Amino acid sequence: MNSSCDIDQFPVGMAYVPWQRWQQVYPVEKAMNRGTIFPDLDKPFSMGRCR
User: Dihedral of CA 45/48/50/51: which sign?
Assistant: First the structure.
């Protein structure tokens, strides 16, 4: 196993999730393609994955 992906090396953390305000939503077809109806939550996955 690649040591950079060894989860035991990371400390326990706390998550913070701010309240989401209802704003504009994607049309149904785009929402199904993007995996969310909210443009504010449509973030690109920028990290690599463990191999």
Answer: positive
CA distance 43 to 30: 14
Residue 26 has pLDDT above 90, yes or no: yes
Question: DSSP letters along 38-51, please?
Answer: -GGG-----S----
Write down the number of H helices and E strands in the chain. Answer: 1, 0
pTM above 0.70, yes or no: no
Q: What angle do CA 19, 21, 23 make, to 5 degrees?
A: 155
What tokens appear for 2 in the block? 């690649």
